[in-house]
Write a structure and sequence with these properties.
This protein has helices at about 15-20, 50-55, 60-70, 80-100, 120-130; strands at about 5-10, 35-45, 105-110, 145-150, 185-190. The chain is of the alpha+beta class. It has one domain (about 5-210). Strands 1-2-3-5-4 form a five-stranded mixed β-sheet, with helices on one face. One of its GO terms (molecular function) is catalytic activity. Keywords: Signal.
């Protein structure tokens, strides 16, 4: 996983996005510095429901399972061992975020339901992981604005896009590579209000609509 961060200091009116203080407070100081980041989380589970189950575990449930795993509890099933390792991964990601403390960041490879209607995984990560200090020297971090994004990954196309004679509707035959709709999706967490009216998407943008482009060759995958 790679974590890229940049500190942007500029005289931009980010205060207009913040919306964190009362409009009657004449002493509001404009925000002139913010940290933006993108993080490949690798939360690409075999199913979206599996990720939801991990994210919805309470802090106590997480700790109990991890302790049993570390103690080599012989009664643990293989599924429970796998879940324990996934919880450790999620906690490590949360710790990195708490250390770097970006104001706005994009969470890559964060599975969703494809249409971004279900918020269970997003809310669970925020409330059950980021809301708890992952290290004695760290503090919890909160993001008031959380945006789930609809995606093409794993979305069935109905066509044999990889030209192998089969229309499987997944992987290379999906509009975006994925074993199910919503795998390898992404989300945005922000401490500033998100301007919903000016969000743009390239989800339905066609290659033929891009100026000065040539028609791509059709290759057969092997």
């Amino acid at each position: 996983m790679k974590f890229t961060r940049s500190v942007i200091a500029a005289s931009i009116a980010l205060a207009a996005l913040a919306g964190c203080s009362s409009s009657n407070d004449e002493t509001i100081q404009p925000v002139t510095e913010a940290r933006f980041a993108t993080y490949n989380l690798s939360f690409d589970r075999d199913t979206y429901e599996a990720l939801v189950a991990e994210m919805e575990l309470s802090r106590e449930e997480q700790s109990a399972l991890i302790q049993r795993y570390k103690d080599n509890d012989s009664t643990l099933t293989e599924a429970q061992k796998t879940t324990a390792k996934k919880i450790i991964q999620i906690r490590n990601v949360a710790e990195t975020i708490q250390r770097t403390r970006p104001n706005v960041f994009l969470l890559a490879e964060f599975n969703n339901d494809g249409e971004a209607k279900d918020m269970k995984a997003i809310e669970g990560f925020h409330d059950n992981y980021l809301a708890y200090a992952q290290n004695e020297q760290l503090k919890p971090i909160s993001y008031q604005f959380r945006k789930n994004i609809a995606t093409n990954t794993g979305k069935p196309s109905g066509f044999d896009l990889d030209n192998n004679g089969k229309a499987t509707n997944i992987q290379n035959d999906a509009w975006g590579f994925g074993n199910y709709h919503g795998q390898y999706a992404f989300a945005v967490f922000s401490q500033f209000q998100i301007d919903e009216n000016n969000i743009r998407t390239f989800q339905n943008f066609k290659w033929q609509c891009c100026k000065k482009t040539s028609k791509r060759q059709r290759y057969k995958f092997t």
